[in-house]
Amino acid sequence: MSLSWGSVAAVLGLAVPVVAALWEFVLAGRKRLGYRVQLDTTIRDSAASGPATTVLQRMQWDGTNLRDPSVVLLRIENAGWSPVVAGDYVAPASDPVGIRIAFPGRRVVGMTVTERSPQVPPSFFVPGAEGFETTGREVKLPKVILNRRAHYKVLAVLDREEGFTEPEFPEPEVTAGVVGGVRGGNIKKTAYYPFASRQVRWLLASLILVSTSPPSPWPGPTTRPRRWTAPPGPCTCRVPRPSRRCCGRPRGSTSGPARTPASR
Predict the structure, then answer these.
(1) Which end of the chain lies in a sparser environment, N or C, as judged by fewer CB atoms within 10 Å?
(2) Burial grade of 147 (CB within 10 A; 0-12, 13-18, 19 or more)
(3) CA 159, 162, 166 angle in degrees (round to 5)?
(4) pTM of the shown model
């Protein structure tokens, strides 16, 4: 049994939406935490950066000016389709911390929550709230209740640690997890896709490539061979008497073109 590219494209045209829907609403629809680094900048030259940035270099830590200040803005979000509650975080029940953010090579000078979804209670981020604190190079965030697509943003002011000589800082290390989440429940770095997720876009691109591919070299369905027809003229063949036709013409006919299968 042979297949044509048209048949393959038709099958994929039905399969791709089904797979995309299963991925978006079944697999990715489970509990899933995500984070996004929206800003990570270092201010080393206030003259080149402008007068507005000199406020960071005027900041002090224990009475000492910051050596090499930097600013990081992170977005924490519920990237799944199910709400995340306090009991979903992978942490002991007695531990109020749900997410830990480490900054290798930098120490935390201060941090605050600059934006949050209306569904996120502000009581999680008031000064002195359990699980909302900084220690050394780490920011600790509480077990925030996040409904579907809810998010909040954390702004951290950092300074270079003594002894760290690398010109560039490593990316922040975010540690968290939810029970029963996608891919082991660990928090994943996400990206903004206004049209569709990366997996769905790959599936759609594959379908477009298949649809625009040249015709397949495979042979098509076999056709029934045409019957042999005799050329016009007298019939010269010898056919047994029971046969009623000879050379494609009625027996005994000596003129006229032979009848082809199409003319019958």
Answers:
(1) N
(2) middle
(3) 80
(4) 0.62
Torsion over CA of 115, 30, 194 and 112, rounded to 10 degrees?
A: 10
pLDDT band at 190 (very low <50, low <70, confident <90, very high): confident
CA angle 29, 30, 32 (to 5 degrees): 100
| 84-130 residue pLDDT tens | 999 999 999 899 999 999 999 999 999 999 999 999 999 999 988 99
| 151-179: average pLDDT | 92
Element (H, E) at 75: strand 70-78
Instruction: List the strands of the sheet with 97-102, edge to edge.
Output: 133-135, 138-142, 97-102, 173-175
Helices (H), 142-238: 198-211
Question: For residues 74 and 39, what is the distance between their CA atoms, to the nearest angstrom?
Answer: 7
